[in-house]
Amino acid sequence: MLKNKKDIFLLVSVFMTGAAVLIIEILAMRIISPYFGNTIFTTSSVIGTVLTALSLGYYFGGRFSDKYPHYFVFYFIILVSGLLVVFMQFLTSFILPIFGALFSMKSGPIISSLFIFFIPAFVLGLLSPFAVKLHKKPSGSSQNTEGDQVGSQSGEVFFWSTLGSIAGTLLAGFVLIPLFGINAIIIATGVFLFLWGAGGFFFLDSLKKHFSSLSYKYALLPFLILAFVLLFVLFYWPQKTAGVIYQKDGVYEKIKIVDGEWNGSPTRFLFQDRSYSAAMYLQKNELVYDYTKYYTLYKLFNPNATKAFVIGGGAYSIPKALLEESEDMQVDVAEIEPDLLALSKKYFNFNPDNRLQDYTEDGRRFLSQNQKKYDILISDVYYSLFSIPMHFTTKEFFNLSKSRLEDNGVFIGNFGGNLYGDSSVLIMSEIKTFKEVFPNSYFFAVNSPKSQNIQNIIFLGINSNQKIDFNSNEIVKNNNTIINGLAQKNIKVDDIDFSQYKELTDNFAPIEYLVGKIID
Known about the structure:
PABS domain-containing protein; thermospermine synthase activity; Growth Hormone, Chain: A; four-stranded antiparallel sheet; 520 residues; transferase; membrane
């Protein structure tokens, strides 16, 4: 009976630690993304680090289990892994801001992953070989020796370990991250592992005897270490940045709302991860960022437009402006982060009526599943060069967008990049791709076409043959400063040789690599 109890508790332990490994791996991507972007470099670095740590853990765990095949050692490893996971949270809070400033979006994720996540994953990797070594299947009437059952024993261990990993993956993605903050999940995971390991000492009679033979000061040492780490985290946790009025881990990014100043005026900012996403003046009703003001370009082609679709709500600055300037305007918004609409109402003075329809959905997916056509389609999903959604840069996306425009509809997109040098490859590839879909198109540098710095680039695609006459009175004498300044912002793409740039498609769009040329 004792043997069965041991085996059951052992396999449950394997399940629990398998779940912990995948929870940590998924959280690791969310932890690193604010500093280096939600890119393929981050994903590859985290997965590569965890797999390397686990593989080495399996190797050394096998050798270690041959020397010390004891349940006490197995549960002590679980206890230590809990301490390391809690300490990992301490490292992320104090080390990542430093690494974010020191390393590029290519090197930063792998260095950070190795420094922060390698050791906890390595220690958890020690457990599977131990479990195989310790797991004993009752022989019954079989004449098989213990060695003959290694296959079934190891298969059962890895079955429960993998099942735990599946459970951890689903639990993290569908329950923990949407409901709790990342910091709380990490600390809870660490404390759970610690207590589970400690429970192994007291649950099994043989471990009680082994444990009671230890000096009490050594027996209590791990508990004292855990208490010290938790108290340190509690009392010395980095305080809120000045001006922060809201912060929370969203489903996709860290969300923070901060009061500060912009151009000498009191301003409220929305941060997604570590990048400015949107802003609102607190004492005047006008758009803060210049690139957002280009939504008015639709008036040159269809001043009586009534149907608009905005991809990327943010603080809902553009939907708010569209609704305020026309009582006939109907605005659909696709915003994948579910909390942003409620936050825009609470903190950014957005009070929409039934003319606004909000969809918590990926914008491209929404377009592909709905046949509705619009007079205006605005794409504003680039809140940071660190996190450019690849599927909003390709020829397929632009074709889909064009198919959802009325005959005289316009596409207005906010993109970013550098117009000069090797770092111009990204924006030039995007312009080339866009021109293939929208032959009648214009591109405006929000700062200046002569600027050699990274800046917002506005893409304007017209679903008709109507052209812009930059010398017409409609442009030159327009009261809107964005429109009367278009000639100075116009990028003369006819003078650019695009043969050296590649078209971006769903099959080929190495966005992170091209962004790396800009940032590195």
